[in-house]
Design goal:
The protein has 15 helices and no strands. By secondary structure, it is mainly alpha-helical.
């Protein structure tokens, strides 16, 4: 379920978009609006109305990542049996998919700033469909791993460009509402994907799940071609080449609030992907649940993210500052990690003791991840929104790719290792936020 929710935080978290992050280092941003930034609560110039079709398509694009990851998770043990591979080796299909998503965002984000949103998006969707076909036909694990890398890289186009399109179209309250609608649609993906995948496994092999992803990629390609229009006019595009892109990335990474939020998001993703990659084998091998039961438990935990994303945007954000929400969510994430470690080592309460802290942790991510994304994108100007979105997403998936196989170190799934991954990720995310996102540096976004 790598598609992090990018739902709203508060009306002021995006108000800082008027301040270019490319000029900030260790000093607070100013609140002087840029001339090309629309007023808070208004659509960007030339874009009026949300459009249900656009919301549906962008929701589907951001859901492509979770579907790519989660749909085949119930089939991981079957892949290991069919291809005669160890569970840890099969988890490399997830790891390399996330490496692909990380690399792809670094490609498609800057390309969308230079050539517009539409052409790179369509190229990515076509490549996703073709790589999914290779996954269906993969004769061995090596080919499957390679195809998953390409599939992840191509599928990242929808994730990174979808966020950039939202940043192009809206600002302030209008942006928050638009992102909330997209997050609600894309949030259903991690709930439904393992359930659908488990049902597919009853009638077909793991190859059939990749066949379903092939059909989805083709459908999204056709719909995006017919519905989506260009949202970044030629006169506002970043006309620089590779050197200019690298300089922009360097300036963004020297912006300490942006860097702190990116690190916080990435390390929180470590907890998320530790759970995603390890839960299938831990629940099915350690706790002996069926693929169908696993899919239900996975979907239940995913409900926590979806619900808390909506609660965050509609109830919490109007009443609390982004910093308060971040600190609260980080505290809950760390506490759930501590409880998970204790319940898998000191007090063994079985399946319930394993699942309950994970449910709480997932709920905290429903508050944490949208706030980090919205605040970080709110610090940059629209012309580099694609590049900024790429940096955010790349960090998330790089950490996820490193963390993914840790719960099966030694060749066997371990509930204790998974618990430690969740705890350490939460602690490191908290340290990054406290060290780099100090109140004076976020004076605008927290105002």
């Amino acid at each position: 379920m790598p598609g992090p929710p990018v739902g709203p935080t508060d009306d002021t978290s995006t108000a800082a978009a008027a301040t270019p992050a490319t000029t900030a280092t260790d000093t607070p941003a100013t609140d002087t609006p840029a001339t090309d930034t629309p007023a808070v609560g208004q659509p960007a110039a030339g874009h009026t109305g949300t459009g249900l079709a656009t919301i549906a398509v962008l929701g589907g694009l951001t859901a492509l990542g979770p579907l790519t990851t989660d749909l085949y998770l119930p089939g991981l043990p079957a892949i290991a049996d069919d291809l005669a591979a160890e569970p840890a080796a099969v988890q490399l299909t997830l790891t390399f998919s996330m490496f692909g998503v990380a690399a792809g965002q670094l490609l498609f984000g800057p390309l969308s700033d230079r050539f517009g949103r539409r052409p790179p998006l369509l190229v990515g969707l076509v490549a996703y469909t073709l790589s999914s076909v290779v996954c269906v036909l993969a004769p061995n694990l090596s080919v499957l791993i390679a195809a998953r890398f390409v599939q992840g890289a191509a599928g990242s186009a929808g994730l990174v460009i979808g966020r950039a399109i939202a940043r192009d179209r809206f600002q302030g309250v209008a942006l928050l509402r638009f992102l909330a609608s997209i997050a609600l649609i894309s949030g259903l993906a991690p709930i439904l994907a393992p359930i659908i995948g488990a049902q597919l496994m009853r009638f077909t092999s793991w190859r059939g799940t990749f066949g379903a992803l092939t059909a989805l990629g083709l459908l999204l390609t056709l719909v995006a071609f017919g519905v989506l229009r260009e949202t970044l006019p030629p006169e506002t595009r970043d006309g620089g080449g590779l050197g200019a892109t690298l300089r922009t990335m360097g300036r963004l990474l020297r912006n300490l609030p942006f860097l702190g939020l990116a690190l916080t998001s990435s390390l929180a993703f470590g907890a998320l992907f530790g759970y995603i990659s390890g839960s299938s084998t831990v629940l099915q091998h350690v706790y002996q649940v069926s693929p169908q039961t696993y899919s239900l438990l996975f979907g239940l935990n995913s409900v926590a993210i979806v619900v808390m994303t909506q609660v965050n945007g509609r109830l919490l954000a109007p009443r609390f500052t982004p910093r308060s929400l971040m600190l609260g969510a980080l505290a809950v994430a760390v506490a759930s990690g501590v409880a998970l470690v204790l319940l898998t080592t000191v007090w063994d309460l079985g399946l319930a003791g394993f699942c309950a802290p994970l449910f709480v942790m997932m709920g905290s991510l429903g508050v944490l991840l949208p706030n980090t994304a919205a605040q970080a994108l709110g610090l940059v100007e629209p012309q580099v929104a694609g590049t900024a979105s790429a940096l955010l997403g790349t960090g998330n998936f790089l950490v996820g790719a490193v963390v993914a196989p840790l719960s099966s170190l030694g060749g066997q799934p371990s509930a204790v290792l998974l618990a430690l991954v969740v705890l350490v990720s939460g602690v490191l995310a908290t340290v990054a936020y406290l060290a780099l996102c100090r109140p004076r540096r976020l004076a605008v976004t927290d105002s």
